[in-house]
């Protein structure tokens, strides 16, 4: 297997070179040149596997033997040793038709830990065996930053800078990032929203001279390894349903603002996972809902919501899906993306829209509805949802049919978003790791939304880091 760009202007790469490239040098996103197929018999054989064992099975289709089996096994073991639940991503039954896959048992209490703990180990491995300098640069709407820092801090040969939107993440999310006192960690709080941060990241990675000079590596879901690692828990969720659910249509509802998490499900389905609807749950920043319902992909006005990790108007991973929607035609993808850049919107025709609607459903959940769902499930089931998971539950309720099974991903622990939950007069017990954050000093630099200023901050940081390292 080799990896190619959605825009078709990058020479095919191996697995490790794809990891190091992150954003493709032609501005596209890297994807495998062929998606491997998993048979029904193989799926049955996988039912008894642990999360770690399943991870190794799935990755074996994609690594081309570039990482010895023993090394990969050691990385996976270390990646999930810090998770608080022995199953890593346990599946909980809420009622006869609804299950919740808890993805928040990692060190920063969010689903991003599942992929980023492994990516930290992988980057450390690459740095060691190749003698590579690894300077990680990423943007976050809240959870990626903390998870990325937790995944790489203290690892030799790695430096990390994370951009987050100033005053537009939850307080816990901010504290998890900025209370890390490490000379090889830089937090930039950008006066703007997440899309502004993400755009600067793309521009810096698109500056190939800057990217090469400072050894920039991607931690966001523009890096295919993020997508692949998340695919594992789709398989895990399906394979761990009880016998009573066997033979029924299984739909999966996913809180997703950047199209990365839901695209992992799309990849799992193309590999052969026999799931029904992939349901995209968003909030009032509902570009993905509008695309699925109308065929128009057009960023709207940014809105702050109770689910800030989905306060996104430009979904980076949408281009990966567009590639498959357009019949794997990279020239067409390039034309569509150029039009989006030029005109601020693209629209697919009715035939393509019909295809979209056979593959996805989508719901943009209003703030009040999000809170109502949290209150309802706390009262009826005794289960406390974070606001993002509540959006996922609302989408499940809208699209799960009679006799069907729904799995909703719980993407964060509710303690990370007490600002919203406290509006319902619901009190919760904070995990000790979160409760102690407010007593720690913060380390961050507030900057304007300006590529040149951010580049200057990075130049100073990377030069200083090199001297420290």
Question: What does this entry look like structurally?
Answer:
Residues 89-323 form the Tryptophan synthase beta chain-like PALP domain. Catalyzes the gamma-elimination of phosphate from L-phosphohomoserine and the beta-addition of water to produce L-threonine. The chain is α/β, with parallel strands linked by helices and 469 residues long. It has a domain at 91-109 and 231-424: Rossmann fold, CATH 3.40.50. Helices cover 45% and strands 15% of the residues. The protein contains 20 helices and 15 strands. It has helices spanning 15-21, 40-46, 51-59, 69-80, 112-130, 143-152, 171-178, 194-206, 208-213, 224-239, 260-271, 287-294, 318-325, 330-343, 350-359, 367-381, 387-399, 418-421, 432-435, 451-468, and strands spanning 3-5, 30-32, 91-95, 98-102, 134-139, 158-165, 185-191, 216-218, 250-255, 278-282, 296-297, 346-347, 360-364, 405-410, 445-448. The strands form four sheets. It has a six-stranded mixed sheet with strand order 3-4-14-9-10-13, sandwiched between helices. It has a five-stranded parallel sheet with strand order 8-5-6-7-15, with helices on both faces. Helix 11 links the parallel strand 9 (250-255) and strand 10. The longest helix has 19 residues, at 112-130. The chain is globular, with a radius of gyration of 21 Å. It starts with a strand and ends with a helix.
